[in-house]
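Following the same procedure, sequence and fold were stored together, as reproduced here.

>
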Amino acid sequence: MSSSRFPLLRREEERDTEVTWQDQQRINEFSKLNARYERLDDEYKRQKEEDGYLDDLAMDIELLDDDEPVRYKIGDVFIKMALEDAQARVQEDKARISRRVSDLDAELGATQAKMDALKKTLYAKFGQAINLEKS
């Protein structure tokens, strides 16, 4: 009945309100959504950081000579490519990451909305006997 982040029901107040099977399902769903939210948030932060790195890279590439080959990292390998090709690759990568950040933002919003709806239902029934806030 508890997640790793916070206890859901306080022991001393558990006995005051009966926890039905449906209530337990809601508590379990909230816990799953909370774990999903944490994973999505971590991924969102990583993607935003990568987007910042690509911004810096785009500025650095602009300072290079046109005839100087650029070493561009793809996976674990560096590949030499023409400056124009590297600039195009950076723009493609930025567009891909921007789409991913947008998708993650939408998923975070939808997950938070579901969690808020469950919180409202659970707090209405259990009041102070349940803790759904992060500590």
In short: The CA atoms of residues 51 and 95 lie 9 Å apart. The chain has three helices and two strands. Strands lie at 70-74, 77-81. The chain has a mean pLDDT of 88.
